[in-house]
Design brief:
By secondary structure, the chain is α/β, with parallel strands linked by helices. Helices cover about 55% and strands about 10% of the residues. The protein is built from 11 helices and 8 strands. The chain is globular, with a radius of gyration of 17 Å. Bound molecules: ligand PTJ.
Length: about 250
């Protein structure tokens, strides 16, 4: 039992969720390592949503609202950490979910689909009848109506090569990744440098607020966003946070 009064309660609870995901067969063993890396970056950032991340979250919501065929990709870590939040986001922006795994087994794909359905997900792409060109591992397998056909794909925390392959297919990619230096962060069109636990509800909040906004206003928000600049500012925020502790 972790007491709520513990100063790092949220972080420790996140860890418990990932461990639970591994025990249930939803999350891969490698997911534990990914979580550790994420935790380290979150710690360096001060375990809070920065101003820069909040800006990216607003742009992400705008792009999802503008999309014609948005899809939210779900891996083993996202399924363990934010299943309900991803379902809510999907409903807010009309984006079905699709399970897409790096360490893919059919068993784990089906278990995650069942997990999402049991939490209330109604719209999930479940076929694996198409391949993302340029990817030689199992992550290439996608649904021809889902990720393969999407114009905007949200990829919460992952390794980098699929992000580039999706961008090469002409899709707009939104990544959530606490590591502003990662390949995913540098390849995505919009990178949210924030913990997926905070990022997904924030994007949903923006989407609900902006749902009735004019298309032109959303387009302007997306057009004015510069991902490289945003990533550079994330690194500035990280170093500023470290300097503030050093004083
Ligand atoms: O379920 P699978 O088989 O698809 O595998 C999923 C993982 C995440 C294991 C796989 O994609 C992988 O190995 O990813 P990487 O290369 O470890 O990258 C994960 C990235 O996510 C790293 O840059 C971490 O910093 C970041 N990350 C980890 N936890 C979080 C996070 N970003 C946001 N929120 C987190 N909670």
């Amino acid at each position: 039992m972790i007491p709520k009064s513990h100063p790092r309660y949220e972080s420790l609870m996140t860890r418990e969720k990932i461990i639970d995901g591994v025990k249930r067969g939803i999350t891969s063993m490698q997911g534990l390592i990914a979580e550790g890396r994420g935790e380290a970056f979150d710690y360096l950032m001060g375990e809070k949503t920065t101003k820069t991340a909040l800006e990216a979250e607003k742009v992400a919501a705008s792009l999802l609202l503008l999309a014609g065929r948005p899809v939210i990709s779900v891996n083993g870590n996202a399924a363990a950490l934010v299943p309900d939040e991803l379902i809510k986001l999907g409903e807010a922006v009309n984006a079905p979910l699709e399970v897409n795994l790096f360490h893919r087994t059919e068993g784990r794909v089906n278990m995650i689909i069942e997990h999402l359905r049991s939490r209330g997900a109604r719209s999930i792409y479940t076929k694996s009848d198409a391949f993302i060109p340029g990817i030689e591992h199992e992550r290439a397998k996608v649904d021809s109506d889902g990720i393969f056909n999407a114009d905007v794909v949200l990829v919460p925390l992952e390794d980098g090569d699929r992000c580039k392959a999706l961008a090469d297919m002409g899709k707009r990619v939104i990544a959530i990744d606490l590591n502003p230096l990662s390949r995913t962060a540098r390849t995505a069109h919009i990178t949210v440098v924030d913990n997926v636990m905070r990022a997904v509800p924030n994007i949903t909040g923006f989407a609900l607020d902006m749902k009735l906004s004019e298309k032109e206003a959303l387009q302007k928000t997306v057009r004015e966003f510069d991902n490289s600049e945003n990533l550079a500012r994330s690194i500035d925020e990280l170093t500023a946070h470290l300097r503030s502790i050093r004083k």
